[in-house]
């Protein structure tokens, strides 16, 4: 469903992505681990088109999308959520989801009709609000909801484009243990055919949700395999997991 | 997203009632001032759509209005085209020009977008000023008004023309609301709040900006075609950046991003201009002081200030009254 071939990116002398090749099958849930500065978010930015790789390619559902801009990749089914909330703060939760659903259904550029009143848009808004547990907050403005609920909305907005592949950059970033547990359920309850690539520091969530795990270090893939193997890898303990195991 | 609250409806009703009262009771000079307000109101509505709901602060809307005025004048006086067709042509032409400006400017933001629009506006001003067919500094005269005699309306009569402009303004306001509540308008607001996210959702951002800028340009062109008919004479000064600057002052004075506020701003600005200019030649200074006070008060213009104080209170009182009425009816 999503594949990268020999992706490479440098900023001056700093090599942030080194020859990264990944292959995600349809419905696969892969978690990307790695210490700070490993190049995880930079890799995401190249996948969605916010950054152009120096070399290598990105393929979505068999199509080479490397040269496509962000919006075209999104319309082909690549959606992302951000590590830092990137929402429409002055609008309600419903309007936030509605904007995304309107783009997906083609109502976002229509004149003379209100996109949010369209049945297909309302249907997506309702379904996504159920999926990410936002029904009680639909009419609240983003500025009126808690940080944790905003994280749910961050994922919800990405989901409302009905993507083939959902990229989530630290969905539980900054939320407490209780809410983090809620995120486990939320992610596990998403449709099984949705391909997910998740950057996550919460190890419990990573091992709970992941079918496969990829570990990046200095922009390079140093591990790619099943979660059980990741737990037993001495290399991973050395570069990343040591602090977690000892915690 | 644009919403009408109770206060906005009340303000609209009061504005419409005031305009109608003035249209039916005023003498010639009062009617001329009213028409000036109504045409300026169209221009500032056009500017509020792009600046207040799309974050595209434009300094070329004066040129777009001037372009509409010149297009109408050339079509009717030089090409002999019938006024209704000339008006439609002027609106289409300014809409197309605005779409191109919006498309080119869509990749820039803030001060850079302002400068780009200023450059477009000044290019249009210079072109009109230097091109003989436009009459140069002397401008163009002998511009005729629409002929509505087939329905018994003589637009050469000041009262009829003011009422006609009021009807057009009402239509423009209604159209503006429809645009802002449409999928396109919602996307525009989304782009203003978070352009990066809208792009990541799959929206072609430049196209949304260009489309709305084009629609806004059509409204500005319509205002220009009416301005040409109002004065029956036009000069390059109509395209000057100072006209765009004044329109921006009016929008900020009235309340950016409220639609209703700019209407109040237009009325306040024109009345202040005429009243103060009869007292002092330094009337701009007074308007400047008022603008500084409005900006420094951190209220969103005159209407924003009113709305911040009474908008929610009015809605709450109305909701309380509705609930009490329902209780009484239920008890009965």
Task: State the separation between the terminal residues of chain B, measured CA to CA.
Answer: 39 Å
Overall mean pLDDT of chain B:
91
For the CA atoms, what is the radius of gyration of chain A?
A: 18 Å
Largest interface: A-B, 35 and 27 residues
The CATH architecture of chain B is Orthogonal Bundle
> What number of structural domains do the residues of chain A give?
2
Beta-strand percentage range of chain A? 15-25%
- Computed CA radius of gyration of chain B, to the nearest angstrom: 21 Å
Q: For the terminal residues of chain A, how far apart are their CA atoms?
A: 36 Å
According to CATH, the fold-level topology of chain B is ABC transporter involved in vitamin B12 uptake, BtuC
CATH architecture of the largest domain in chain A: 3-Layer(aba) Sandwich
Q: Please count the beta strands of chain B (DSSP E, at least 2 residues each).
A: 2
What is the highest CATH level, the class of the largest domain in chain A?
Answer: Alpha Beta
Helix count, DSSP H or I runs of 4 or more residues of chain A: 9
**Average pLDDT score of chain A:** 87
What structural category arises from helix and sheet content of chain A? alpha/beta
| Succession of helices and strands of chain A | EEEHEEHEHHHEHEHEEHH
Task: Kindly identify the CATH topology of the largest domain in chain A.
Answer: Rossmann fold
CATH class of chain B: Mainly Alpha
What does this structure look like?
- The complex is a heterodimer of chains A (247) and B (332).
- Chain A is 37% helix and 24% strand.
- Chain A is built from 9 helices and 10 strands.
- A 6-stranded mixed beta sheet of chain A has the order 6-7-8-3-9-10, sandwiched between helices. In chain A, strands 2-1-4-5 form a 4-stranded antiparallel beta sheet, with helices on one face.
- In chain A, helix 3 (93-105) crosses helix 4 (119-131) and helix 3 (93-105) packs parallel to helix 5.
- The model of chain A has no long low-confidence stretch (mean pLDDT 87).
- With 332 residues, chain B is mainly alpha-helical.
- Chain B has 13 helices and 2 strands; from the N terminus they run αααααβααααβαααα.
- Chain B has a two-stranded antiparallel sheet with strand order 1-2.
